[in-house]
Amino acid sequence: MTRSTRTPTHTIPNLGPAYVTRRQFLEVAGAGILATSLPGCGGSSDSATPSYSQTIDWGERAIARVMSEQRDAAAISVALLKRNNIVWRRAFGKASVDDNKPATIQTRFNIGSVSKVLAGLAGVILQDRGLIDLDTPIVRYLPAFRMLSPAYARITSRHLLSHASGLPGTNGRNIFTFAPVPGYSADTETELLDTHLKHVPGQLAVYCNDGFTLFEQIVLAVTRQTFPDFVETNILAPLNMTNSGYPRSPQPAGEFAYPYFREKQYPQEFVNAFATGGLSTTPSDMMNLAQMFLAGGMFQGRHIVSPAGISAMATDQTTGLQINPSPEWRWGLGWDSVRQPGLANANVTAWEKNGGTAFFASEFFVLPDAQMALMLTGNSGYGGDALAIAEGILMRALQEDGSLGALPATIVNTVPPLATPPDTTDAAGIYGNYKAPLQVVVGEDGSLALNEWSGSAWAPLHSGVSRYRYRSDGWWWSDNGALPSFRFAEASGTDEAGNAYRYRYLMERVTPGAGYGRITLPIAQQLAPRPLLSAAWRSRMGSRWTVTNESPESVSWKLSDNPSVTIGSLVELPGYILFGGGSVGYQLLVPLADDRGGMSVKVPVNHGRDLNEIRFATVNGMETLTIDSSVYAPA
């Protein structure tokens, strides 16, 4: 659950339009905003400490502006904490547009992948109690767990909670629905039995919802409680988070914000992947959780977890990775980043988690040194601005209470002078990721053309940009400094079997959120030519498949314009299977057998997430296609 206009869930991360990526969680991409003098939207408001009046005024105007510009941003709710005091909390807009019902500070929102922080916290609580060891292979707790890759036996809970397990990504079946669909985590564990890892555990870290879903099964095994029951008993209740929980039955109207998409209201949204994205809560409740983090595991004199557990969650989990071309990306346990890049550029330590569902987007920050926290959540129509608003509020609050002398300067992306390019002839070719193949064309002058597969043809990665030229800072830029810049990076070494590897990545540099700093991340991996596909695979070229076992209450089933997928190939790289279409994007797979196609890339951070392994079988004389736990029939 979480972000992408090519910027990952900043902290990565998920989707675009709400329903479009049924197999991923919402990747909310940050974008800069400017405060305006628009009046605040309706809702409830507590009196705030006068010293934060300028911050509150800026935040209310920023939220009002995005709500006026994004019609689907029906409701937004915010809370800002300083030490043990909530200095600002307010709900804006309508919890139910159809009923003209205002959102209040008690209105619950689905916070998507921010829920992963609760999973990380559950992990360190269980370690405190001696029920698990984060570094013990999970097969000790799940002895029936198997995968097709032998390295599955080395997966630990730490790998699961820090995106380093190597699990494929996200089981997309029935993840977002309009009625509860039980059994999602058990269903995911079952489908993993017939799946390979995409990398060995600990080799790299790439956003992975499946890891948190599998952790639900560990909690059940060692506590005999379901994950929601364990969290509600051991975290939510002790923290007095009385407006929080994991909805497993329809809730009374008026308690929650309704989905609102394309100016239409929908029924209550259920997220059946509890640990990875299923919490429904309020910003005020999340400030109780934040107080516990700031107090080293204590809340109002009650011990929740040890200080060592809080420290473990906030420890950079990337230091031992074998492949890590984006070192500024510092995963924690449950946290997207334990040194959030935007605030880090102002020398402020911030733990951050963003999240999204099919219909909602959220940002959660805890600043341990500044003793400050922020929760911002609302309908996903505002999601592209969520990070910018959150960073803007926090920077101004830090300035107003004297923690910062002045607001840091935002990045001005001035295009540097041209420079003599290195020889990148061998960088030309086709690159793969989870979303769409990319084509790199190297010109005679060393410039680059970057194209993306649209489903039927190649189109410029950024509309209107035909060439990127090498500049004095070592990156390829277009003439538009507001667009990302690019370069190449390589990862090489020897794997555990003694085989040499060398991966070339196309790196992208962007200025997310409010623009306080740049981040770099690999967006695709170069693919080498392969032998031509077998006759069995060639016979499937052009075939279209439709899912048969999705719940009729599935969001994708009800909203998707094109729920089918296709099997094809690229002329430029004919040895690969081009799989996807509609809402799932396009991936290049390698044939593992005539009845199975496997994952072809190892792209860290976000663009190697949610990879597919597909397999065919004949049932009652008809060939079927299985992806994750979804079964497809010929369309």
TrEMBL record:
UniProt superkingdom: Bacteria
InterPro entries: Beta-lactam-related, Beta-lactam/transpept-like, Diverse_Enzym_Activities, TAT_signal
Protein name: Serine hydrolase
Keyword Transmembrane: no
Pfam (any one): Beta-lactamase
GO terms for MF: hydrolase activity
Gene3D superfamilies linked to this entry: DD-peptidase/beta-lactamase superfamily
Xref: SUPFAM superfamilies: beta-lactamase/transpeptidase-like (SSF56601)
Recorded coiled-coil stretches: none
Residues of the Beta-lactamase-related domain: 65-386
Keywords: Hydrolase
